[in-house]
Amino acid sequence: MQSVVRGRVREWTALLSVVSLALVFGAALGVIPRALLPVAPDAVFDAIPHVNAVLSTLAIVTIVAGVAASRRGDYERHRRLMVASLLLFAGFLVLYLYKVTVQGPASFPGPAAVEQYLYLPLLAVHILLAVVCVPLLYYVFLLAATRPISAVFDTRHKQVARVAAALWVVSFVLGNVVYVLLYIVY
């Protein structure tokens, strides 16, 4: 499988990106039938945003630590931290998709002015960055996962990863700001 993907990283990136984004937008737009999923108790749904905030914060830490490890030349640690970041993101995404598919997107409970001038612009940038990050993350992950570390230097991994990591951190930070506005401030 590794050799099949290695020669077609762009194609696999496109395929995985389309499938992933279709799931996200399908859940957010209510296209995925709720009946496909079991319904958890209300306490589980109430906990998901808080668990996701923790997962997001941990992902920010692992991304920043992974970038620092790469800059120090500790590529094995970098790889472990970035895989941890992807796993944290995957956990976040599974919980988010489950909640949104079953309950729909959260509505903003605060004042209309805050929603219009703060919450919605932050949410829009967060979503835009998350969407842009998906193919970038798949691309750098597939480049790294299909090659020994020494061969990764012969790819565009470093250039694309710099952009991906920066956008990913900002997206996670904005996601946490959205969380604070939705579940703590209001």
TrEMBL record:
Which BP terms in the Gene Ontology apply to this protein? respiratory electron transport chain
Select a single GO molecular function from the record's annotations and give it.
cytochrome-c oxidase activity
The UniProt entry's GO CC annotations, sorted and at most eight, read: membrane
- Xref: Pfam families: DUF420
| UniProt KW Transmembrane keyword | yes
Keyword Nucleotide-binding on entry = no
* Alphabetical list of InterPro entries matching this protein: Cyt_c_oxidase_su3_a-hlx (IPR013833), DUF420 (IPR007352)
Ordered alphabetically, the record's keywords are: Membrane, Transmembrane, Transmembrane helix
Q: Where are the transmembrane segments?
A: 12-36, 48-69, 81-98, 118-142, 163-185
Q: What is this protein called?
A: DUF420 domain-containing protein
User: Lineage of this protein's species?
Assistant: Archaea, Methanobacteriati, Methanobacteriota, Stenosarchaea group, Halobacteria
